């Protein structure tokens, strides 16, 4: 894909209220083709929660509230109540605000049946391929294990948005803590099957560091070069890099390009390895990433 064509659609940027991310001012991004408003709420050091507001019904939800206070502040600014809490998985940095928010607003907590004993305050269990209505908006539940065994993603087809938690990041994917490379590959392919213009809302602001690794193993990818420069510009101004477009990730994210000859060569992955075997050879932690960079530098 031509890098200029890839970047011809302006990347959305937004400002968010965060102590650590230092984003200047809270505001929302709205999909103008639907009545679903999506507002980013930075939490902790690098987490993102997302407030959802169905303008037509007044339904309000939050995705993955790692802490309660920033969410309460955001709701108070808009004078809104909270109807639902949706969790992609059970980790504390995605559920830490559940119980306080539930107690304050009477919100219902939603999560995977696999995690029914691990998500604090869970009320509603949703499983793979189930459809659920958030106000007037259909939500498709996608089982996306790999990072954890109970991980799900929430896809809003009418708004072209998926909340992928820690399954897919911009230019990377989640660490395999409870799953296998085969499971993660299957999960990533589910997301890749969505329309190219789908907006991906992930759980963390990792894109700048991810871009450095991606460039280290795919340095001649012109689309990646352009996107990495865009990411560096945003972060230099303390602006978020999320949401990202699926078409951008398909062109730039090395974890979605496991068949790439150049990437396999950089990581010493045999050409005969299948895609799940290749994915299993990718660095999965900062330590592995640094070791890979050291190895690459000695080979150049």
UniProtKB/TrEMBL annotation:
Keyword tRNA processing: no
Annotated ranges, domain Metallo-beta-lactamase: 46-204
HAMAP family, per database record: Glyoxalase_2
Organism: Salix purpurea (Purple osier willow)
Entry's family note: Belongs to the metallo-beta-lactamase superfamily. Glyoxalase II family.
Keyword terms, alphabetized: Hydrolase, Metal-binding, Zinc
NCBIfam families: GSH_gloB (TIGR03413)
Pathway(s) served: Secondary metabolite metabolism; methylglyoxal degradation; (R)-lactate from methylglyoxal: step 2/2
Signal peptide (residue range): none
Pfam families in alphabetical order: HAGH_C, Lactamase_B
Protein name: hydroxyacylglutathione hydrolase
Cofactor: Zn(2+); Fe(3+); Fe(2+)
Any one GO molecular-function label of the UniProt entry: hydroxyacylglutathione hydrolase activity
Keyword Cell division annotated: no
Record EC number: 3.1.2.6
GO-annotated biological processes: methylglyoxal catabolic process to D-lactate via S-lactoyl-glutathione
PANTHER family with a match to the protein in the record: HYDROXYACYLGLUTATHIONE HYDROLASE, HYDROXYACYLGLUTATHIONE HYDROLASE GLOB
Superkingdom of origin organism: Eukaryota
Catalytic activity field: an S-(2-hydroxyacyl)glutathione + H2O = a 2-hydroxy carboxylate + glutathione + H(+)
């Amino acid at each position: 894909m031509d890098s200029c064509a890839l970047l011809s659609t302006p990347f959305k940027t937004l400002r968010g209220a965060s102590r650590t991310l230092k984003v200047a001012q809270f505001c929302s991004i709205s999909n103008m083709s639907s009545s679903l408003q999506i507002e980013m709420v930075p939490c902790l050091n690098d987490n993102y929660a997302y407030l959802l507001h169905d303008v037509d019904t007044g339904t309000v939800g939050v995705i993955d509230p790692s802490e309660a206070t920033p969410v309460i502040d955001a709701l108070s600014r808009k004078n809104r109540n909270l109807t639902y809490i949706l969790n992609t998985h059970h980790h504390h940095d995605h559920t830490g605000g559940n119980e306080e928010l539930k107690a304050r607003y009477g919100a219902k907590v939603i999560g995977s049946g696999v995690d029914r004993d691990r998500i604090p305050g869970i009320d509603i269990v949703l499983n793979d391929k189930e459809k659920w209505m958030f106000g007037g908006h259909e939500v498709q539940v996608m089982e996306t294990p790999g990072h954890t065994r109970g991980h799900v993603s929430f896809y809003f087809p009418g708004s072209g948005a998926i909340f992928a938690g820690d399954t897919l990041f911009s230019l990377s994917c989640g660490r395999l803590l409870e799953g296998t490379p085969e499971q993660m590959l299957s999960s990533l392919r589910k997301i890749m099957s969505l329309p190219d213009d789908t907006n991906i809302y992930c759980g963390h602001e990792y894109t700048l560091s991810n871009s450095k690794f991606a460039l280290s193993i795919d340095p001649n990818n012109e689309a990646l070069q352009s996107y990495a420069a865009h990411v560096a510009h945003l972060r230099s101004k303390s602006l978020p890099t999320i949401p990202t477009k699926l078409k951008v990730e398909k062109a730039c994210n090395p974890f979605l390009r496991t068949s790439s000859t150049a990437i396999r060569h950089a990581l010493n992955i045999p050409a005969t390895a299948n895609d799940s075997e290749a994915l299993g050879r990718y660095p999965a932690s900062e330590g592995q990433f640094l070791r890979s960079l050291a190895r690459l530098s000695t080979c150049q």
